[in-house]
Amino acid sequence: MLTKTFTGSAFLLGDHVNTDILHPPDYFSLKKERIATGLSKGAEDFFSRMAKDDIIVAGRNFGCGSSRESSARSFAYNGIRAIVAESFARIFFRNLTNQGIYLITCPGITKKVVQGEPIAIDLEKLEVRSGRQGWALPCSPLPEYIKSVLEKGGLLKFLEEELAEDI
Amino acid sequence: MKSCNTYTHQILRTHRTGENPAAEGDYAEYSLDFILGHDATTALLVDDFYRLGGKIWDREKALFTADHFAPPANEERANILKKFLDFCRAQDVKNLELFTGICHQLLVEHPAIVPGKLVIGADSHTVMAGALGCLATGMGSTDVLSGLLTGRIRLKVPECFKITFTGTKSPFILGKDIILKLLADLEEDGALYRSLEFVDRTENSISMDSRFSISNMVVEGGAKAGIFFPDAITQAYLEEKGAENSARVILPDQPVYEREIVLDISGLAPQVAIPPHPSHAVAVWDVAGEHIDQVYIGSCTGGRVEDLRIASEILKGKKAAPYCRLVVIPSSNKIYLAAMEKGYIQTLVEAGAAVCNPSCGPCGKIDKGIIAEGETCLATSNRNFDGRMGGRGSRVFLSSTATAAASAIEGKITDPRNYF
Fold it and tell me: Are residues B394 and B297 in the same domain?
């Protein structure tokens, strides 16, 4: 089932936040705990300042840099389900989608939202809106393939079903 | 979509698995010609791979390289490498390279990589193979897992930029200077999701080694691919490596691009990218005199024969400055041997270089050559994010090998033209 709405408080990040900041290469590991611990350890450890229901609202080109999937998995292992940004880096977008995380592109969002503001992502109306100020901004529709991966909860489950159908 | 009928689109069209063209803005399925995986990111997919069936669709069409932990420096890395090697052995892979070079260099050296191929790799710098006229792009482990199992991948048709290089290249200018200048012009995300198509119209031609550096770094501007139109330079390289010349290359008929850029490289100054992003490039004189603790010549961007030749020409009979460490890592064994035969390695060792075996080295804080908190490295590699090569507050500047070699002599960022 595709999740239709996400609500939480906006946690703002800047433009061009790269994968080395989000998950430094020395946290690359095959161990789940080690991967989970590495989230945001490259910068000022913003993750430790995030509350449980916060939604990251990032600027342009979020997640630029490496293809290390450990970065994407660290978001999933820490229970992050959706992120909003002005735009996402290409590989990062695929990697997080493959983990079942909803990446919502919303041009202009960083000019509207303030730190801590309650927001709702509404995938039926295709908008991100404020729970306080009354603004609403259109977000880009998710392509069909991305929707079907998210519906299954990630690429592994999607593949599992696809391979079963092939037989 | 503004662009149509581009070289990128032609390659996609010939690899489409369904009959219908891809719907605009959506993903469609394509059949793959080749897949690249290295020790680190391949080890990450092994467990899920076995759970989902566990057989590579075509063992001839994948290259696996142990280059990140090559050889491993601690127990955890040894365990990761073991997992990778056990996987390769169990799958009876046909192309395994163990400690013989960096995956991207080994990929382009492989005879199967010829113009027109569709290639994915579990590393962002897979785009480097675009220099040979392939559509090559980086992905995460799970996407690569799906490719290995099925031989197919879903892709979105990208918008394309045409970038034409004109003018005459000066001897002190390398591909690295050209791509740093282009990234600076495009800015951090100026090529996001785009495929860049390069046409070399320079008077004296950009060398294959330099083209590899250019294609390697397109991902730093966000690009999905960076493809050189195959020409005489490409053909000569393919013949030299003994490639089968069987690629079906259909050059596009009247392509339309979202954007066309002409870059005249005649008067181009040597470029240096200031941290924390590769697109923050300036002319070398703007940062000349900046103190450096280490020079790193190597990586998939700057450790080829052309690089080692220029470094040895500049460093011949000279020494790296006192306290300036000089680390040199050739990109592959083939390059290492060629550089030995030419005497470049001897010259570099005499100049004080610590020459390590072909591998990823200190880039990505992986292996030997890591710098301390507060230190600065001038590197020929491709990324200068904060802490990319060491502790907090450590900095990496990026340059060509010519600039790096000249800077090693002086222990500070130096215009290489002083040494030509």
Answer: yes
Distance from the Cα of A115 to chain B's closest Cα (Å) equals 24
Q: Mind listing the domains of chain A with CATH numbers?
A: 5-166 (3.20.19.10)
Domain that holds residue B342: 271-419
Partner-chain residue, chosen from A65, A72, A143, that has the shortest CB–CB distance to B26: A143
Q: Is B362 among the domain residues? A: yes
The verdict on A95 touching B (C-beta cutoff 8 Å) is: yes
- One-letter amino acid at B174 equals L
Task: Give contacts of B145 with chain A, Cβ < 8 Å.
Answer: 159
Q: pLDDT tens digits, chain B, 420 residues: what are they?
A: 999 999 999 999 999 998 887 888 889 999 999 999 999 999 999 999 999 988 999 999 999 999 999 999 999 999 999 999 999 999 999 999 999 999 999 999 999 999 999 999 999 999 999 999 999 999 999 999 999 999 999 999 999 999 999 999 999 999 999 999 999 999 999 999 999 999 999 999 999 999 999 999 999 999 999 999 999 999 999 999 999 765 557 778 899 999 999 999 999 999 999 999 999 999 999 999 999 999 999 999 999 999 999 999 999 999 999 999 999 999 999 999 999 999 999 999 999 999 999 999 999 999 999 999 999 999 999 999 998 999 888 999 999 999 999 999 999 999 999 998
Q: Is the peptide bond before B71 cis (omega within 30 degrees of 0)?
A: yes
Domain boundary pick from B264, B295, B326: B264
Instruction: State which residue of chain B sits closest to A59, comparing Cα positions.
Output: B189
* Shared-domain flag, residues B164 and B72: yes
Question: Is residue B366 included in any domain, yes or no?
Answer: yes
Q: Tell me how far apart the alpha carbons of residues A84 and A128 are, in angstroms, rounded to a whole number.
A: 9
Do the Cβ atoms of B188 and A60 come within 8 Å?
Answer: yes
Give start and end residues of each alpha helix (H) in A99-154.
109-112, 144-152
Domain boundary among B232, B264, B296: B264
> Is B297 within 8 Å of B369 (Cβ atoms)?
no
A15 interface with B at CB cutoff 8 Å? yes
- Are residue B258 and residue B277 in the same domain, yes or no? no
- Cα of first residue to Cα of last residue in chain B, in angstroms, is 47
Instruction: Give dist(CA B114, CA B238) in Å, integer.
Output: 7
Q: Do B195 and B328 touch, CB atoms closer than 8 A?
A: no
The CA distances from residue B11 to A165, B6, B30, B408, in Å, are 28, 9, 10, 43
Q: Structurally, how many domains does chain B consist of?
A: 2
Report the candidate in B103, B113, B384 with the shortest Cα–Cα distance to residue B228.
B113
Q: Which residues contact B54 (CB under 8 A, 6 or more apart)?
A: none
Q: Which of these, B9, B58, B211, lies nearest to B129 by C-alpha position? A: B211
* Residue B17 covered by a domain: yes
A100-149 pLDDT, tens digit each: 999 999 999 999 999 999 999 999 999 999 999 899 999 999 999 999 99
